[in-house]
């Protein structure tokens, strides 16, 4: 499968979204603020308790195109999005940088992990409650949290979606997330087959640099 530059940019919307400063979702009513504080504390505890996560993912872009793959996460700050075999892209965070490797055109791009909305998910040292709020869903079994650093709105907005599950860390199961770019385009990532706190080797977050080519004669 070949992708245009636009198509590749759409793949990244859910990971490197740059959103406008304005809030994208309504603020919870005052009567719900006590419950909201408890829910935010539960999400913060979830992030602290999840040392690793593996799951299948399906990512749907603004055009309705869906790609699948496998997600691997390890705290602190490591994550890998291995797309389906016909997609020549790999996205990896090694604890410091989020890197997109494009094997089709032999290019590598990097961003500080803190510049990505995913920092809300893979940085357990951050105080989650300072840059997030509960978004009312109308379903008591679904918890939706919008994370946005108000001091750095250019870093984007991500809405994490959890399902309540007593058997999962902190009683929550990460169902996926929704992100919007500066033009309001929406990308959704849905997870399935989640496995928590399973052994994950650091080698999972290494990658082959497509810019390195062997010299003639093998030297």
From TrEMBL:
Residues 1-23 form the signal peptide. SUPFAM superfamilies: Prokaryotic lipoproteins and lipoprotein localization factors (SSF89392). Keywords: Lipoprotein, Signal. It holds the Pfam family LolA. Gene3D superfamilies: Lipoprotein localisation LolA/LolB/LppX (2.50.20.10). InterPro entries: LolA/LolB/LppX, OM_lipoprot_carrier_LolA-like. Transmembrane segments: none annotated. This is Outer membrane lipoprotein-sorting protein. It comes from Sphingobium jiangsuense.
């Amino acid at each position: 499968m070949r992708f245009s530059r636009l198509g590749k940019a759409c793949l990244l919307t859910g990971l490197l979204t740059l959103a406008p400063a304005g809030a994208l979702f309504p603020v919870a009513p005052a009567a719900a603020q006590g419950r909201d504080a408890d829910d935010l504390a539960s999400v913060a505890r979830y992030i602290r308790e999840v040392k690793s996560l593996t799951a299948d993912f399906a990512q749907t872009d603004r055009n309705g195109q869906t790609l699948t793959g496998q997600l691997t996460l390890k705290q602190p700050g490591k994550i890998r999005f291995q797309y389906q075999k016909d997609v020549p892209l790999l996205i990896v965070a090694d604890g410091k940088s989020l890197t997109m490797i494009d094997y089709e055109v032999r290019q590598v791009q990097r961003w500080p992990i803190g510049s990505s909305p995913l920092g809300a998910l893979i940085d357990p040292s951050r105080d989650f409650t300072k840059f997030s709020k509960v978004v009312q869903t109308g379903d008591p079994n679904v918890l939706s949290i919008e994370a946005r650093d108000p001091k750095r709105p250019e870093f984007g907005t991500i809405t994490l979606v959890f399902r309540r599950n007593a058997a999962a860390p902190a009683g929550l199961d990460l169902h996926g997330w929704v992100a919007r770019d500066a033009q309001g385009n929406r990308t959704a990532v849905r997870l399935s087959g989640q496995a928590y706190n399973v052994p994950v080797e650091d080698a999972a977050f290494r990658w082959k640099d497509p810019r390195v080519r062997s010299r003639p004669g093998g030297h």
